């Protein structure tokens, strides 16, 4: 897909438009059947990344970009504004032609995830920090916790049992986080390994929606670090944060 420069816009509008453009490219790639299933993920990663970099560089030439699929530029560590992107979050789900994969376009300013968009192209949904989010509905009697459908961490399973949460297996980090934003779940708890591109955009959207987002010890999430490893994450409704953090602490985890 040939990229075209985007018109002047706010950071949130830009994030949304870039996420939508990359999502459209990925959907067309699925429909085209241009490659075998075992090659689809690699091609999706590469082509979505190229489009995202081109659009962001054109629209914000002074900003740095940290992408899962591009070589890192250490000079970004001294920059105030860094776009942190995952061109295809949930490559396995994309390759299997499931719906729970995403495109993440996040912007960190001074190390804080302030703006972003998460596109769920297979469902036609996109969530951005300039959305008007509805008030959260009353909390259910039993919270629902989204977890990895293939490798849920033992700590996460123990915490779910401790608070009596129903498990909801799901694919990409973006799909899990947006399940909480949409009200399809109340808690997304993760440990065992992520990077900044896995959660920068989802965290920005979660904060805009009025949700709690932190490390699993309650510490703030920081971005544009020299090492982009960010191994644990809690996104949840504020009314569940204290109980989840207490349950995590009772298990004596070692963050990171």
TrEMBL record:
Annotated keywords: Hydrolase, Magnesium, Metal-binding
InterPro entries noted in UniProt: CysQ/Inositol_MonoPase (IPR050725), Inositol_monoP_metal-BS (IPR020583), Inositol_monophosphatase-like (IPR000760)
Catalysis performed (reactions): adenosine 3',5'-bisphosphate + H2O = AMP + phosphate
Signal peptide: none
Single annotated GO MF: 3'(2'),5'-bisphosphate nucleotidase activity
TM regions (residue ranges): none
Highest taxon, organism lineage: Bacteria
CDD domains: CysQ
Protein name: 3'(2'),5-bisphosphonucleoside 3'(2')-phosphohydrolase
Organism: Sphingomonas echinoides
